[in-house]
Amino acid sequence: MREVAISCNSAYDGLFFYAVKTTGIFCRPSCKSRVPKRENVSFFLSAAEAQKQVIALVRDVDLI
C-alpha cells in the first residue's frame, strides 16, 4: 500500500486511506502531499477508521 500511496495513483482511491501520525491528517492514495516517513504512516480500509485514529492521535498530543 505504501508504494501505491507514494505513486499518487487515483485508481486506488476509496480502496484504502492512510494517516500520518506526525501531522494528524489522513489522505486518499492520490494525495499529492510530501512523502511521509514509513514509521509515521498507518493504513485503513475506510475514511471513518482513519478519522478515528487521527482524532485519537490529536488527543494524545494535546495531553503532552
TrEMBL record:
Gene Ontology molecular function terms on file: methyltransferase activity
InterPro entries: Ada-like_dom_sf, Ada_DNA_repair_Zn-bd
Positions of the Ada DNA repair metal-binding domain: 5-53
GO biological process: methylation
Its EC number(s): 2.1.1.-
UniProt keyword terms in alphabetical order: Activator, Methyltransferase, Transferase
The protein's name in its UniProt record: AraC family transcriptional regulator of adaptative response / methylphosphotriester-DNA alkyltransferase methyltransferase
Source organism of the structure: Virgibacillus alimentarius
